[in-house]
Write the structure tokens for this entry.
Amino acid sequence: MRAVQGLRPAWLRRRVDVGRIITHDFPLKAVAVVIAVVFWVAITQNATPRPVTVAFDGRIPVERPENPVGYVLRGQFGDVGVTLRGAPGVADRVALSELHATFDVKSLTLGQTEPQDARVSVTVAKDGVEVVDVSPATVSVRVERLISRVLLVQPRFANEPPTGARAGDAAVTPTEVRVTGPETDIGRITAVLGTVRFGDAQTDIETSTPAIPVDAAGVAIDGLQVEPGVVVVKVPVLPTATTRTVPVVFALRGVVAPGYWVLGVAMDPFAVTVRGDEQVLSTLDRIETLPIDIGDLSATKKLSVGLSLPTGVTLLRPTDVAVTVTVQPLTGTRLFSTAVVVTGLATNLTAELDLTNVGVLVAGPVPALAGLPPEQVVASVDAAGRGPGIYLLDVAVRVPSAVSVQTVQATRVTLTIKAK
């Protein structure tokens, strides 16, 4: 056995001191371990996290951009949902105040009363986060022209005078106001009313009241600018005899000329005082004009019209009614396929176009569009001062002053010039 032990290597014959191995140079070993841990933590923290895609938990209201000069944006823009992409802990912690949804007005056709689809864009005010989806992607918008009309103010009685009294002829100051607003709303106005209410006492009324535009049903049209917005209405309150003040209602007969429409009918006076039997007057709520013929009317018409009085009823103050029937042409569009002509070409050169015709959409009054000859829609490219070669040129379109060019397809053509 001893012989065998004598053959073992010296390092096997030495006793292994584990404690000494651990404690020997312990400070250096501890520092090495700490450095290794720090490097591991740094590498782990600096590793680029994988981006995540999350749906924002909420809705972003679509902000209304500024109205173009001379136009107004109309529509209920609502709100949209968005899907975001970014680092974990960032993309899923975006606040509503960091998201803004809007649309580009420049992408819309100005003055078009029909709804248009505008693409919604959403921006996020947070680094490292992007918007990958917007729903719905578009909103419906109308871009209408702002127009103005000067209209007469008519008094309206909110209630009846007290028992034993009647209203005399009302006076309004000023007599006219200017109403500004979207084109379609201005077209709906049938009257501008200043409303007064009678009290219990039989005394004359003088009161300030808003001038309110209303439609054919007598409903106020909101969102219009009225200047001045307040008028003064004076109404004498007179003792009741066998008289009654009733409104005047116009009676139109016929149809205006094709391509035109009746914008409005104004009357002066708008109410008259009549005399007659008390039982007859108690059932009388209005007086109609004699029929006003508007057949084939294509322009505003002013005329004096009599009243159609029931049997046994006369006017307290005989008068005719001054009636103004305002007629305007309808607006529309018409598409022309127009040959492109080359102007300014030198006599020793020839020219060829890659497109010989372009589509021209012309807008304007319907009667003017219907009578517009195709040869008055001229499309051309200018070759003045150009020698042989190939050119990409803009197409210029010229139309009569009564109409305007809406769109041109295509707006550019390729012109090839060669020597003869």
Observations:
- The chain is about 10% helix and 50% strand.
- The longest strand covers residues 138-157.
